[in-house]
Structure prediction request, 768 residues.
Amino acid sequence: MKTSTLAVSMTLALLPTFASAAANPDELAAIRQQIQSLQSDYERRIQALETRLAQAEAETQAAKQAASEAQSAASTTATSSAAAAPPPRSAANAFNPAISLILDGKLTQFSNDPEEYALPGFQLGGEAGPGDEGFSVQHSELMISANADDMFFGQLTAAIASHEGATEIELEEAYIETAALGNGLNLRGGRFYSGIGYLNQQHTHAWDFADAPLVYRALFGDQLNDDGVQLSWLAPTDLYFNVGAEWLRGGDWPAAGDAHDGTGAGTLFAKLGGDVGVSNSWQLGASHWRADVVDRAGGGHAHEHGGEAAEVSFTGDSQISALDFVWKWAPGGNATRTNFKFQAEYFLRDEEGLISIAEDPIEETSYDGEQDGWYAQAIYQFMPRWRAGLRYDRLTADNSGSDADVLAEAGLDAAGHDPNRYGLMFDYSRSEFSRIRVQYNRDESQTDADDQWYLQYVMSLGAHGSHQY
Amino acid sequence: MKMQKILMMFTLLLIVRSAAAVDVFACEPEWAALAQELGGDRVEVFTASAALQDPHRIEARPTLIAKLRQADLLVCTGADLETGWLPMLLRKASNDRVQPGKPGHFLAAQHVPLKEIPARLDRAEGDVHAFGNPHIQTDPRNIAKVAQALAQRLAQIDASQSAFYAERHQAFAARWQAAMQRWEQQAAPLRSVPVVVQHKSWVYLQDWLGLVEVATLEPKPGIPPSSGYLAEVLTQLHQQPARMVIRAAYQDGRSSEWLSKQAGIPAVELPFTVGGNDNAQDLFALFDDTLAQLLGAIK
Prediction:
C-alpha cells in the first residue's frame, strides 16, 4: 500500500518536467545550446589550465635539477621549496582505504604430539591447540580500513590461514563503527572481537607471546569474535570509565547453534583506567558473557574413541564472568628505552545443560560445568628493541553430571589434574614494524608435561596501525 | 545506601567540569603553551605528552582517551607525527567535536610549509613521514604562522569572545616579532656552522639559523645507530669537521655523548619543546635557552 502511494507521488512529481519539455521544443533547443556553450567554455578553461600545469611542471623540474646539482648527491629526499601546494594525487586512488598486512611465521618444536593435545576437563574448539610442529605460516592478516563518510568508519580483517594443506580465508573482523556520534557514545555493528576480557580485543600480532593464554584457548578457542552490535559509552570524566553491551549471534565458539533465530549471545563490560604519576598507567575491567548454546561440537583433538574421534557436543546455558587488569610503567612516560607491563586476567565459566557423544547409540549425560582459569604475565623492555617476558597459566575444572562415565569419555573429567603452564619469551624489534621472538613453554596441560619451543616473526607492512592500550 | 553514594559521586564527577570556556587537548607541550598564550584564562589546556617523551610513540592510555572525550579543541602537530596513537584516541574518545574536518580538529603542520617531503616512500628508509618533516616547532617563524591560525580557530570555537582572542593574538604576535629580531641578531655567529644531529629533528631550526647539517647519528630515521655506523660518522668528521652534536632532551644521549668525546666537540642537549629543561618553561624561554646553548657551544 505504502509503496504504491510512493510510486504514484513520484510519478506525479516527475510528470510536469516531461510534460513541459515535450510541450516546448524551442526551450529544449535553447537548453541544448546553453549546454554546448558551457561545454566549449569548460574545454577552453581546461586547456588553459593544462598549459599552465605543463609550464609549472617544467619550472619545478628545472628548479629541482638546479637544487640537486647544488646539493651533494647523498640525499634521497626532495625539499619542495614552494611547498605551499600539496603534492598532486591521482583522483582514482586518492580515496583508497588504509591497507596493512601482517606476516607471521613460526618454527616450532614440541616434545609431545600436538595432535594428542587436550585440556582435561575442557571441551576444546575453535583453533585451540599449540599449532603445527615445524615450519608454518598459519596466519597472515590483511587489514583494510577507512572512513565511509563523516559518520561511519569501517574495517575488515581477513586471516589467510593454512589448514592441512588447504588455504582458507577467515573473516576475523568486518565491522562498521560510528566515530562522530558524540556524547561518548559509540555504536559498532558487524563481526568484531568481543569486549570481554582484555587480550580478546587485541589482534594476535599485538600479543606478547606466540600463543594464547591457556584460559583463552580453553574457553574461546583462542579468541571470541561474533556477529552483532555493540554499544558503548565513555563517561565525561578524567578517570577513564567505559561501559558497553553487545548483542551477538551466538554462532561462534564458545557459543554455537545461532539460538533465538541468530541472536543468542550477549556481553556486558565495564572498564576503568587512569594514570599514577607520569610513569604509570593502569586499566581494570570486568565483563560478563552469556549464551544459549545449541550443539556445540568439540574440536577434533578432544576425544579419541576406538581410533576415531566421536563428536562431543554441548547444549545448554553458558555464562562467563571475567576480570582483567593491566599496569604499564615507563620511566618519565617515555617507553622508547625501557618499559614494563604487567597483565592478568581471571575467567569463571558456569555451564548447565546436556552433553552428548555422537556414537551408536548416542550417549548422553546432564552436565553442570564449573571452570575457571587465570594467567599473569610480565613483559620488560630492558634496552631499546629488546624485551623479555614471563607468563604463568592455570586452569581448574569442576564438572559434574548424571553419568560420570559419559562425562569422562567426553574428556570433561579433569581427574584431579589442573592444567598449568610456564612461558618465557625474548623478542627483538628492529623497528616498530618488525619483531622476532623466541619462546619456551613448560606446558603441564596434561599429566605428561610438554616442552614447547617457538621461533616466530611478526612483520607489519603498509599503513601504520595505531595500537590500543 | 551504598548505591546511592556511588550515584552521588558519579553525578558530582559529571558536574565538576572545568569552568573555562574551551577545553583544549594539546598533543605536544609547544602547542599547549601556544594555546595558553592565546587563550589565557578562557582555555583549560591538557597536554597529552611531556617534553621528555618521544612524540612519535605515546601510549593511547585510558587517561588520554578520557581527556579527549571532554575536549572542545584538539591541537596537534599532524603530518603523521602522532599516527601511532592519535587515530586510536580519536576512535575511542567518541567525541564528535574533535574529529578530522571539524573546527575542533586543529593540526599545526597544515599551516606551515613542510620540508623533506620524501620523493620515495619506503620503510627501508626508516620511519619516514609521508607528508614531510613534522618537527616544525623548532623555527619561531612557524610558531608565528601557527599562532595566527590557532587564534582564528579559537575565535571560531568560542565565537562570542572572538575579539578577546584577536587582542591576545595581536599582543603575542608583537612580543614574538620583537623576540625573533633579538634572536636573529644573537644568532648571527651561528650562520654556516656545521653540526651533527642525532635525529632529523632540527631541519626547521637549521633553516632558520643557517646551521649546516653534516651528519645524522641515526643511520635511518627512527633506527638507533650501531657502533659501526658511529665509527663511520667519526671518520667522516675527520674530513668534514663539525662544531657540535645536537640532540633533543627526550632522546637517549649515549651515542651523541660518545661522539662528543671521540671527536672532541661539545654535545648539546636542546629542550626541543617547552619543558625540555628547567629553563625552557614557555615558548620565549624555549628559544632563549636553545640559542644560549648553541652559542655556548661555538665559543
User: Anything to note?
Assistant: The two ends of chain B are 72 Å apart (CA to CA). Chain B touches chain A through 57 residues (CB under 8 Å). Chain B has a mean pLDDT of 90.
